Amino acid sequence: MVGLNGRIERDPEWLTSESDRITIDGLPLVVAKPVYLMCHKPCGLVTTAHDPEGRPTVYRCLEGLGIPHVGPVGRLDMASEGLLLFTNDTHWASAILDPARHVRKTYHVQIDGAIQPAMIDRMTMGVIDEGQRLQAISVRTLRVVGKTSWLEIVLEEGKNREIRRMLKVFGLAVLQLIRIRIGPVALGDLAKGGVRFLTETEIDALAQGRTAG
């Protein structure tokens, strides 16, 4: 039973303020302390709390931390790895995901083959896949290893499987995809499956929509 300032409140749409005293079955409602985390998501985990197919999820990385429930800020598909943010601060998460904030995300991508300058030009101008425009901010070759190449690709919006879909337009298959940076926050040397708390500087910079710092 929900209590509001000493009375029972049955209207689920009743607006409250920070000064209101809310109780659940007579016990005061305690607001969870804001938590801001970064995780190095390994390949093979799905970015969800519960998977109907029973596949392992990214919440394996958070076990034993003793923190309030947090949610991922955006996603990485099961076959991808790298930097993934978590928080229970929905306003902060929304600010990062807001396209108007232009928070850039940087990826290192291994492809089967080599990318040509004309392909890079098309990716930065935008390509159409399944009726949707996909566009990279920048694309550059980092190195060539045998018959494969490593690229650095920077996105702003990050549509579903955007990099894989863009490269598939040119017949290029993705072998590895690692997100190494979101805005000013870099993955650094955080081990796969590792988690750390963000610093106050990182939290503030992400909220303000800064790019690389």
What does this protein structure show overall?
By secondary structure, the chain is α+β, with helices and mostly antiparallel strands. The protein folds into 2 domains: 36-100 and 185-207, Alpha-Beta Plaits (2-Layer Sandwich); 104-182, Pseudouridine synthase. Helices cover 15% and strands 33% of the residues. The chain contains 4 helices and 15 strands. It has helices at residues 90-97, 117-125, 162-169, 200-207; strands spanning 2-4, 7-8, 22-24, 27-28, 36-41, 71-73, 81-87, 105-112, 127-129, 132-134, 138-145, 148-155, 174-182, 185-186, 195-197. Strands 5, 6, 7, 8, 11, 12, 13, 14 and 15 form a 9-stranded mixed beta sheet that branches. The longest helix has 9 residues, at 117-125.
